[in-house]
Amino acid sequence: MTHTTPDRRARLDNGGRAPWHPLAREAFDRALDDGWADPRRLHAEGRRAAALLDGAREAVAAALGARTEEVHLTPTHTASLHTAVAALAGGRARVGRRVVVGAVERAAVLHAAEHGGLEREVVGVDRAGRVDAVAMSDAVARPGVALAALQLANGEVGTRQPVAAVHEAARAVGVPLLVDAGASVGHDAVPTTWDALAADPADWGGGPGVGVLAVRSRVRRRSPFPEDPDPWAPGGVSVPAAFAAAVALQAVLADREAEDARRRALVERVRARVAEIPDVEVVGDPVDRLPHVVTFSFLYVDGEALLTDLDREGIAVGSGSACTSSTLEPSHVLAAMGVLTHGNVRVALDRSTSEADVDRLLDALPGAVARVRATLGVQGL
Is 323 a residue of the active site? Predict the structure, then answer.
């Protein structure tokens, strides 16, 4: 069958790297003129750059419910997570080397939790992808725990995590809790129940090139880096990227509630229509979830082939499954949930996503699934 790509593509793979918010583009361009210099220099150009950087940190701190001095800017979200695990666990090295994590944490957290002599303890999740709060609280309370890490919500399936309950248990025994809010900030309410929090500007339309790491002043830490004026981001970060990220965050928070309602309605439409296709599993909590993410998996379907078929139709979607010829590895999130891991499609809606974009996906999906199944010799489903 010949596929044609329409002039307008439906971009429905916005998780972790959303299109730039228009105001972020404007802010970035403006900061190129005033923020190109090294903000650590004492001349006028350096002071202007420092003022932009300080303003960005102040704006992000206000959005997170933190003090400005508690907010640090890093090169990427992954760098924020790696640095937080190393620094916070290092600050409690005398207590122990164990890091307690949820089974569906981002790979950056899972890998950091067993790096540099740390010991990783993984707590399981249910079929919705939610960590067992009691089990994690019990694990955190055992001797030898240096750090606990739990995402605010899972960016692959959308399920929110019991952060408040785990934070209460961790505080009772003096264990800091690192919260990965990379999929949540800009889309969902951010609680104050954290000791360290990482956020990802690229996910809310702030553009790549900067990450956010907030650490409460009361938390012990030890920098994993050699001596540097900035122990969280040696060498500093891009001032234009930081300024654009802060401007975008203020913009998306201004209409978050309206966007929440609009995108939740679109996700409900996707969940209902996709469920009509034979041999499909729609995963993640149907209610207690992020407003813009929905994931589903098809039996008898190769995920890579399905994404390629939809791409030819001008529809870009993501996949939580890494079942490709290069890795042959299923998504660790879906595997931990005990749900179908292959034939997976993840849809993450941006503020620019329209009803027409969603309808194009829903109209094209049954035919795409049937074509992929036919290539595998599966007929009549």
Answer: yes
